[in-house]
Structure formats: structure tokens, C-alpha cells
Amino acid sequence: MSSRELILGRVRRALADVRGEDAPVERAYLRVHGDRGVEATVDLLAENLADYRALVHRCGEAELASVVGRLLAERGSGSVVAPSGLDPRWLSETDAERVEDLAGSTAHELDRVDSVVTACAVAIAETGTIVLDGGPDQGRRRITLVPDHHICVVRVPDQVVSSVPQALERIDPGRPLTWISGPSATSDIELDRVEGVHGPRTLEVILVEPVQE
């Protein structure tokens, strides 16, 4: 008996009592922890985002353009890449050069861009996670991975959920999903934290509330 046959035999014996692929999977886990209202859920999102070292800002929809403009100015951004479907009003109060999200843009070209501004698909309060799905107002995945500064706009409460199971119900697993929990960071064997290795060094999240009627 070859080593291959020996290993496959062990795998078959280990899987002998496993149910078939069509058998229903029990999903008895909790969909959400606790009984939070909308305001408490948004507050938890802001708290966990900040805990992951994202910079969190809150404003009304009428103030969004001025907040985006201020953040870009404070950063000293001379250029900003924005998805084709981004609301142009969001960038109406900045003098930064707008760079298109083009299929042919190289990593070197995007690396020369100072900032990126996008929307999101959903935000998860319990984990402080922003999910992008490549939609028209979020653009290609690489525009949020190469530039060093990412401003992400989250509409509250519509785009905020409490838990990961609730988020999974809202997104299409076939889309190019990017899950973001704070700025990109890693650490070496001595636990020295280094930011900006696999994505933006700075993540700023704007929680924007609708106009009250």
C-alpha cells in the first residue's frame, strides 16, 4: 500500500459517519448578543472602530461634504481616488485632484494618490468591522488597499447591523468582499505593531445620519 492510499484510507474512515452534503446544517448559534436599540448599536460600532484605531467622526448628511473636505485638508491630500458611483457632493468641498477608479490603474499609480473616499456595504457593531463589496460607490478592491489614507462613509442606521450573522444576510458572497477592522496592521514575533503593511495606514470612518424631517 502506498503512502497516498494509506492517507486516503484514514481520511475515508474519519469521514465515515459524516452526513451527506445535502443534510441540513444546524445553526443554533445566537444571531445577536444582547438587546440593543439602534442608538446603542451605532455607539457600539463607534466604540469598537476606535478600539481598532480607526478615527471615527459623526455628522449629519448636510455636513458630510464639509467633513470630508476638512479631513482631506488636515491630511494634506492633494489627490483623492473615488469610485465612479460615489455621490459627487461628498467631494464638493475639497480642492484635491480627483483620480478616477480605472481598470488600468497600476499599484504604482495608486501609491502616488494621497487618499481614497468610499461608501460601504455594511458595518458590524459587535466586531467594529466595515465590509466593502465592490459596489459602484466602493470601487475596485485595490483602491482601498494601496493608498495610505481611507475615508469610509457609513450611513446610520441603515448600513449598521449588530452581528456578523446579520451582516452575512445582507451581502452577496459572490462579490469581491473586503472586511476591514481598523487600519492595516501586523506585528512581528516580538509583538511590535506595524501599520500600513497590507492596506491603508490610516482609516477614518464617518458615521453620517440622515436629515431629520
UniProtKB/TrEMBL annotation:
The record's listing under Pfam families reads: LUD_dom (PF02589)
Q: Which Gene3D superfamilies match?
A: NagB/RpiA/CoA transferase-like (3.40.50.10420)
Specify the domain of life of the species encoding this protein: Bacteria
Tell me the ranges covered by the LUD domain, including all copies.
Answer: 44-208
PANTHER family for this protein: LACTATE UTILIZATION PROTEIN C (PTHR43682)
Q: What is this protein called?
A: Lactate utilization protein C
